[in-house]
Amino acid sequence: MSITKKATVFAVGLGLVTLSACGSSDSGSDNSEAESKTVTLVSHNSWAVSKGVLAAFEKQSGYKVKVLEDGDAGQAVNKAILTKDNPQGDVFFGVDNTLLSRALDNDLFQSYEAKGSDQILPEFRVDQDKHRVTPVDTGDICVNYDKAYFSEHKLAPPTSYDDLIKPAYKNLLVTENASTSSPGLGFLLGTAAKYGDEGWQDYWKKLKANGVKVVDGWEQAYNEEFSGSAGGKKAKADRPLVVSYASSPPAEVIYADPKPTSAPTGVADGTCFRQVEYAGLLNNAGNTKGGKALLDFLLTKTFQDDMPLNMFVYPVREGAQVPEEFTEYGPQAKNPETLDPAKIAGNRDDWVKSWTSLVLK
Asked: Greatest CA span in the chain, whole angstroms?
């Protein structure tokens, strides 16, 4: 799942109304494209954009945007692959670097170099020979902690992966299932990057012995199990550590009423894994012209400036604005764990299979 889900939890109605749509039966024909005034975006359930920004794009382009949200990122990617011969829409948004190879290996996208691609920061550019995906945003998957809990218990919050397996933090952490959740998978990949092919399994054995709790997805972990979130407080949650995002603390401030002077949650900076999300023009899309226009829009400075406070992610375009709340309450990790996409592609499925056997059985 993307960082953005928390925005819809804190401010009901902030995002777009979700509308179902199907691919055209005359996919790709010139006549159907000329007649179509609608372009459909397929996404995980965390897409959001300011109404005025979207309205300006619709007026300028002549296309009406419909959004089909399809669950967590992993679920959405898998469904897009299963329906690729008759896709649900024209553009898919939300495949990240942990799942990118699966989408590319299954021929999910057709080639298109979006206008503005030359403005993407170099570290986020991928697939430069074929241009099947367009980088849209970035963020860090990190362990968040409940400041009040650690203050009340006179316990220093963890700062690293190593801390999480210490007896002092037994039964405090909740994470997401690595086989069904994007942040859960990102946390697994972070440990693989940190401890290597030989060490990550031993780490998870120790984490399991230290009482880590695993739930299906981000919403359950953050809003039902984590004691530091607004939702968790209402649910009387009892886990003061959760796998979430570096941008979660700003969200807790921005959407609180009354607004606190400081974030009630913090980030364990030594537990972060860098995530990048992409969009692409679906093969067999019914409206390829509209899809290309929409991809161009996602790279405009207008959209990139608007995105952080709607989807709680960082822009990938050079010169895009980062809100003050991000720099104050949720700065990007200084030294996040990363993995080469080829390394992820070659090992992800085996890692998830081994993780499932180690942690869930």
From this structure: 68
Distance set, CA 272 to CA 141, 159, 247, 269, 326 (Å): 5, 10, 12, 6, 16
Q: How far is CA 335 from its chain centroid?
A: 19
Q: For residue 94, which of 48, 28, 37 has the smallest C-alpha distance?
A: 48
Nearest to 305 by CA among 293, 330, 292, 323: 323
Torsion of CA 241, 246, 248, 253, to 10 degrees: 110
pLDDT tens for the chain, 361 residues: list them.
Answer: 444 444 444 433 223 233 333 333 344 444 454 448 999 999 988 899 999 999 999 999 999 999 999 877 778 898 999 999 999 999 999 999 988 999 999 999 999 999 999 999 999 999 999 999 999 999 999 999 999 999 999 999 999 999 999 999 999 999 999 998 889 999 999 999 999 998 999 999 999 999 999 999 899 999 999 999 999 999 999 999 999 999 999 999 999 988 898 999 999 999 999 999 999 999 999 999 999 999 999 999 999 999 999 999 999 999 999 999 998 998 899 999 999 888 998 999 999 999 999 999 8
The verdict on pTM exceeding 0.90 is: no
Tokens, residue 119: 């403005």
Distance CA 329, CA 247 (A): 8
